[in-house]
Amino acid sequence: MHMADALLTPAVAATMYVASGATTGVCINKLSKDDNTVKLPTMAVTAALVFAGQMVNYTIPGTGSSGHLCGGMLLSALLGPFAGFLSMVVILAIQCLFFADGGLLALGANCWNMAFYGCFVGYYLIWKPIVKSGLFGGKESKAANRIKIIAASVIGCVVTLQLGAFSVVVQTSLSGVTELPFGTFVTVMQPIHLAIGLIEGLITGAVLTFVAESRPELLQAVDSTKMKDRLSLKTTIIVMAVAVIVVGGGVSLLASSNPDGLEWSMFGNEDAGYSANMALDEEAYGVTSEAADVAASVQEKTAFLPDYAFADSDSIAGTSVSGIVGSAMVAVLAVAICFIGGFFRKKKQKV
After folding, report:
1. At what angle do helices 40-54 and 72-79 cross, to 10 degrees?
2. Each residue's pLDDT tens digit in the chain (351 positions)?
3. What CA–CA distance (Å, rounded) separates 4 from 347?
4. Please, are residues 132 and 37 in contact by the beta-carbon 8 Å criterion?
5. In 10 A of CB 84, how many CB atoms?
6. Is the Cβ–Cβ distance between 68 and 28 less than 8 Å?
7. Which among 36, 37, 60, 319 counts the fewest CB atoms within 10 Å?
8. Is the pTM of this model over 0.90?
């Protein structure tokens, strides 16, 4: 669902930068007041896992489209909404700047659409109420906890992805992208992202169930006092780190070549025998602006692995390198932000 710069006017893009920037500031301020040292390994490995997971597009059968993990629900369930949102911002910024995935002018909108809903709406309105409830046999039942985790994951991913997809439609409408009439765009975008959200929910549920079985105290809002640890924290982190390498460096090579939900909605997939949908021209659509041209110029200079590949090369090794290098960059930057927050927290305490 990474938006391109052509879908936004500078005014709408700036508004979304302000919204996402303000939320980022609140998150940094919140984390600077907490001792996050214990969370650092978990934050690093889960952020890296989401980056790697986003590289693996899965086919939506019968549509000619594909989807990929968004990750907001997964991160907020493991780190809480504030650290989860910051991790998503790190992921999206690195994707944008170094892999040319999503427009630089559109980065604020992408952070809002892909991070805010999953991390805050998903956590406070779906994840926390469900996992803390007495549904499916009470809080102390192991089976009930497993069902609640899966249910919260699926419902959360579906709802928050629908909100993100709808926001894309609203933002393009406010930008005056006449090639994407509001009503028609909604009727194409929402159903495909419903299917994408269902699959993401099952993937998220599987990962969180593994964590619940291994180190349940890593899950936010889940009562782990009656749940037994099967793996040490170190072993759990190592297993997840290995998963990052396997997914980013290997499974990413098997990603579907079908367009993702947003691209499919705009351009269709007639070459593969599917619908044309909005049938936009991929080379000339949307709005143009000087700000978008400047953003594209900056992005061209910073993206050393554009489209997760070596520049001017068709080698599949570029994808593997992108997955491993990008995951490492995300992990390091996520930890660095926590250290910076901790530094300012200690300075305030001394004063």
Report:
1. 170
2. 899 999 999 999 999 999 999 999 999 888 877 755 667 888 999 999 999 999 999 999 999 999 999 999 999 999 999 999 999 999 999 999 999 999 999 999 999 999 999 999 999 999 999 999 888 776 567 788 899 999 999 999 999 999 999 999 999 999 999 999 999 999 999 999 999 999 999 999 999 999 999 999 899 988 777 677 788 989 999 999 999 999 999 999 999 999 999 999 999 999 999 999 999 999 999 999 999 999 999 999 999 999 999 988 889 999 999 999 999 999 999 888 767 655 445 555 554
3. 40
4. no
5. 30
6. no
7. 37
8. yes
Label residue 265 exposed, middle or buried (CB < 10 Å: 0-12, 13-18, 19+): buried
Give the whole-angstrom CA distance, residue 296 versus residue 174. 21
The alpha carbons of the chain give a radius of gyration, in whole angstroms, of: 20
Which two tokens mark 158?
């579906």
Start-end of H helices in 250-280: 261-267
DSSP H helical ranges for the chain? 10-32, 40-54, 72-79, 81-99, 107-111, 128-131, 142-174, 182-214, 233-249, 261-267, 290-302, 317-350
Tell me the two tokens of residue 90.
């790190």
Residue 232 — left, alpha, or beta (φ > 0 → left; ψ -120 to 50 → alpha)?
Answer: beta
Question: 295 vs 7, 21, 262, 301, CA distance in Å?
Answer: 13, 17, 21, 10
